[in-house]
Amino acid sequence: MSSLPPQPLSPLDGRYFAAVGELADYLSEAGLNRARVEVEVEWLLTLTDRSLFGTAPLPETDKEQLRALYRDFGQVEIDWLAEKEAVTRHDVKAVEYLVRDRLSSLGLEAVAELTHFACTSEDINSASYALTVQRAITTVWLPKLRAVIDALRGLAQQHRDAAMLARTHGQPATPTTMGKEIAVFVWRLERVAAQVAASEYLAKFSGATGTWSAHLAADPDVDWPALTRTFIEGLGIGFNPLTTQIESHDWQVELYDRVRHAGGILHNLATDVWTYISLGYFSQIPVAGATGSSTMPHKINPIRFENAEANLEIAGGLLTTLAATLVTSRLQRDLTDSTTQRNIGVALGHSLLALDNLQRGLGEISLAQPVLDADLDANWEVLAEAIQTVVRAEIAAGRSQITDPYALLKELTRGRRVGGAQLAEFVGGLDIGDAAKQRLLALTPATYVGLASQLVDEL
């Protein structure tokens, strides 16, 4: 059998790239290398701006030409780095050589030795990962999560008063409204979104074992911790002053746990909406030209929610692995984090794909209120809770001699369907005050929703 032409191995880079491609700007190998070039260039400019080691600040034109190396980073630089890394067998060293090459072309060889000055690779990497993950989360992933939350908020408000039968343990239970049930997910997701938005993105810049030893050897009179803190914070990320060779990755563990938590809530949403569709509570809006089944023409499958469910499970597994692996490094450094971090984009990619499917799916469903109404009308026994609670209140107030209201209602309703007329007859014969009796007789499953509608307004 002949070999295929080169193909993407991951569906994220093939079938689903249109939905997740924005992440590649930050979390691909090229995105990481662009950030590495940015850190190398800005560190060199920081040193020359302070006139260290006999240098002087570069002219603004030279600075802008150097910054163009990462601002205009593209295929030429990608190919250059690939060719160089094939020789160096070291990705960060290849980036250092790229910056040196740019300095040479600009006639700035005099400051070339300040490229990668006193840095270990992990100084560059920690800053680069902090930058790329921060940008991926804040410009791509978090806006997509908020788009899903906004879609849910719109549905919650739209269906604020849409009474429906609740199903605790899958069984008929005290009615609620569809709006309130959706609002629960909005409330949950808003909390996690706020936690993600408040995440720290930390880097270290303290040398081979986190002690600034080489820096002090070069110039013991410079306050290197203060200088490197200012440099890192100037990039828009946080500074970790106490590390081994690597930044400890705790911020990543925290972030990926939060993203995984959001994914768990979204998974719950996907399975609930799928179930509501299967119950007929939501009908699916046909998409022109789409096929639900290769043999059953009538079908509209809830594929958006099934796709989201599967991708959230994949993302959750990867995020759990990232968090579990990155929290540990043997002694002052091992390389397990290097391979692990290269899968950050894969984990967030599956999560983003799930968000995209949920956003699309939520726009392709329509509430079938007649189905909700029929379900409520077929389950008058759910009013047993209201009746026995009112009877208890009447007993406490001295207006009833009933001895065990719960048992009384259990005998009438447990495991049985009870119609409205039968329940009204039962209430009419209860030993309770007239006001309570009239209140119960006025109840229907559709009106027994408590504060469900008003709870949507909590959003």
UniProtKB/TrEMBL annotation:
InterPro entries: Fumarase/histidase_N (IPR024083), Fumarate_lyase_CS (IPR020557), Fumarate_lyase_fam (IPR000362), Fumarate_lyase_N (IPR022761), L-Aspartase-like (IPR008948), PurB_bact (IPR047136), PurB_C (IPR013539). PROSITE patterns: FUMARATE_LYASES (PS00163). Residues 329-449 form the Adenylosuccinate lyase PurB C-terminal domain. Pathway: Purine metabolism; IMP biosynthesis via de novo pathway; 5-amino-1-(5-phospho-D-ribosyl)imidazole-4-carboxamide from 5-amino-1-(5-phospho-D-ribosyl)imidazole-4-carboxylate: step 2/2; Purine metabolism; AMP biosynthesis via de novo pathway; AMP from IMP: step 2/2. Residues 80-308 form the Fumarate lyase N-terminal domain. Its EC number is 4.3.2.2. Pfam families: ASL_C, Lyase_1. Keywords: Lyase, Purine biosynthesis. GO terms for molecular function: lyase activity. Catalyzes two reactions in de novo purine nucleotide biosynthesis. Catalyzes the breakdown of 5-aminoimidazole- (N-succinylocarboxamide) ribotide (SAICAR or 2-[5-amino-1-(5-phospho-beta-D-ribosyl)imidazole-4-carboxamido]succinate) to 5-aminoimidazole-4-carboxamide ribotide (AICAR or 5-amino-1-(5-phospho-beta-D-ribosyl)imidazole-4-carboxamide) and fumarate, and of adenylosuccinate (ADS or N(6)-(1,2-dicarboxyethyl)-AMP) to adenosine monophosphate (AMP) and fumarate. This is Adenylosuccinate lyase. It comes from Microbacterium terregens.
